[in-house]
Write a structure and sequence with these properties.
Order of helices and strands: HHHHH
Helix content: 25-40%
Shape: elongated
Number of strands: 0
Structural class: mainly alpha
Number of helices: 5
Radius of gyration: 27 Å
Oligomer: single chain
Mean pLDDT: 76
């Protein structure tokens, strides 16, 4: 028999097996513990975790099987407008910076008053 690194290993202990009667919050906590540290750090934010739990509860109510990526993607696609409206309310709008002052050319005298050209003085390296 050849060893396959991509084959999922069977869990021996009963504690690792998902229990349908277990609250979704506990199941999510167990799944979060198994995530890489980078993702785990993002889910430590209480607002993100709360939103994540709300979405998981809605998916569970609609009968989505959490083991099926295809079902989860399909559910998310059908509820995309709701998910975006609920999650994007607190994101600040990015504004474009517009410089109103006169543009300094590279061969114009430097505004600092040194008498040198801008590209040899304050504009060097820009």
């Amino acid at each position: 028999m050849i060893w396959n690194p991509f084959k999922r290993k069977k869990r021996e202990d009963a504690a690792a097996q998902p229990d349908k009667n277990e609250p979704i919050e506990q199941r999510i906590e167990r799944e979060i513990d198994a995530l890489p540290a980078m993702l785990k750090g993002k889910l430590n934010d209480p607002e993100v975790k709360k939103r994540f739990v709300e979405i998981a509860k809605r998916m569970e109510q609609d009968g989505v099987d959490f083991k099926s990526i295809r079902q989860m993607k399909k559910w998310m696609k059908t509820h995309e407008a709701e998910l975006r409206a609920g999650g994007g309310a607190d994101v600040p709008k990015v504004e474009t910076v517009v410089h109103d002052g006169p543009r300094i050319g590279r061969n114009d005298p430097c505004p600092c008053g040194s008498g040198k050209k801008y590209n040899k003085c304050c504009g060097e390296g820009k």
